[in-house]
Design goal:
432 residues; alpha+beta; Helix Hairpins; BirA Bifunctional Protein, domain 2; 8-stranded mixed beta sheet
Length: 432
């Protein structure tokens, strides 16, 4: 949620920036309910004070009838005001949750994803002297995947990964874990990008694959049921991405400033319905109901939050460049960054079989919007209490990046070159 005090002080800006993100927020109604709520809080506190005074007067001996009558009247009035306050607070909270996070000034204003800005393009797509196969054709050629038998067992958009494709996935995981644990590598990225943050390594973490509704809703990441799978017998949802159980980890906690930044690299199997996605995305392993992800999550102080965002984008670029894959960096516009985000960056890698760049990475900076509802705070060294700032970013969506690796590195004889950085994790082999 956004800070209500910010809305009180900047109603026109909140109204305008909400529209820029595609949200028609009733700021006027929110402010009316906010004033009613404050008045009711004062009235309830006054009645509670009077109730306590009345109770004190009736202690010891037989109380006068006037005190008894006064106590009854206070009790009735308090019950009515508390009921009205509860109703008002419910409306206030519901209205407050309709307000999206405010985009940073660096975010381009746009009304569709077509107005996202390509900041740079790195690498040149390879010129093939043969028609490049897609990942599914390559997978079938080398017996790396079996979608037919997976469909028989689980339905469409599931796959059995096999052999060297499994080895490739685990090679990527081990390599990423080693990079993000390398303090010197992080320090170089921080210095190269002129960031004022510490070179603290990322801690590997295997998070739960399911969440209860309350923390999931508080994270502002719970999509509607047409996107996210619900476990009907329990109050549980299947994780739709690793950061969903990482950002909620410190729900309702206050952390010491010395603990920040907290940097995690989480690995999780995730699940999405992907309803309404057809065409080319039904082929290969680009868009599946079940997929594995390596996700970065950072909790920080307010003053370092933006630099943490920039570091995560720098890490993403370093990883993709190390795989020698052509890509472009996209600055997402106000419409496309999402409700809880103040800034969003995508990386699209080249997919030769489609002849197009496709999204493989995203990096989201939420400021304190996410932590306010999750109630994750930091106790500063000076004694002050503040909400932490949160960031999440894809290290690799493994199916998507393996698709790009397979397609970009295929040879005319069907062999697939293993990227140099991954060979030590695949027994030194050069080819699949």
């Amino acid at each position: 949620m956004i800070d209500i005090q910010y809305i009180r002080e900047n109603p026109d800006e909140v109204r305008e920036k909400s529209k820029q993100k595609g949200y028609d927020v009733d700021v006027d109604r929110l402010l009316v309910v906010d004033r009613d709520r404050k008045e009711l809080l004062l009235q309830v506190e006054e009645l509670r004070h009077r109730r306590n005074e009345n109770a004190d007067k009736m202690k010891g001996g037989k109380p006068e009838q006037t005190l008894i009558d006064e106590g009854k009247q206070i009790k009735i009035a308090l019950a009515e005001k508390e009921e009205y306050l509860a109703e008002t607070e419910t409306e206030w909270l519901n209205l407050l949750k309709t307000v999206p996070n405010m985009p940073l000034e660096s975010v381009p204003v746009g009304s569709s994803e077509d107005e996202n800005v390509i900041e740079k393009t790195i690498g040149t797509p390879r010129n093939f002297d043969f028609k490049p196969k897609d990942d599914e054709q390559l997978g079938n050629m080398h017996d790396l995947m079996d979608k037919q038998r997976a469909a028989k067992i689980s339905g469409s958009r599931f796959v059995y990964l096999k052999g060297d494709l499994v080895r490739l996935q685990f090679a990527i995981i081990q390599w990423v874990m080693s990079v993000l644990a390398d303090r010197e590598a992080l320090d170089k990225l921080i210095k190269d990008n002129e960031l004022d943050i510490v070179a603290k390594p990322f801690t590997p973490i295997l998070p739960p694959a399911m969440l209860r509704t309350e923390p999931y809703e508080a994270s502002a990441r719970l999509d509607a049921e047409e996107v996210t799978y619900k476990i009907e017998q329990d109050d549980l949802w299947l994780n739709a991405s690793a950061e969903h159980t990482l950002c909620t980890m410190y729900w309702n906690e206050t952390l010491p400033e010395s603990a920040l930044p907290i940097r995690y690299i989480g690995y999780s199997t995730s699940f999405r319905r992907e309803a309404g996605t057809y065409g080319k995305d039904s082929e290969g392993i680009f868009r599946m109901h079940q997929f594995d992800k390596l996700e970065m999550e950072v909790l920080s102080t307010a003053e370092t939050g933006l630099d943490e965002h920039k570091l995560m984008v720098a890490i993403q670029e370093y990883l993709v460049q190390s795989l020698e894959l052509p890509y472009r960096l996209i600055r997402k516009c106000t419409f496309d960054i999402g409700k809880p985000n103040a800034s969003g960056v995508d990386i699209d890698c080249w997919m030769p079989a489609q002849g197009a760049y496709r999204e493989t990475h995203t990096a989201d900076y939420m400021t304190d919007y996410q932590s306010r509802d999750l109630k994750i705070r930091v106790k500063r060294d000076n004694g002050g209490i503040e909400f932490v700032h949160t960031n999440d970013a894809t290290a690799f969506a493994l199916g998507r990046i393996m698709k790009s690796i397979l397609e970009n590195n295929q040879q005319s004889d069907g062999k697939i070159i293993i990227p140099n950085v991954l060979r030590p994790y695949m027994g030194g082999r050069e080819f699949i």
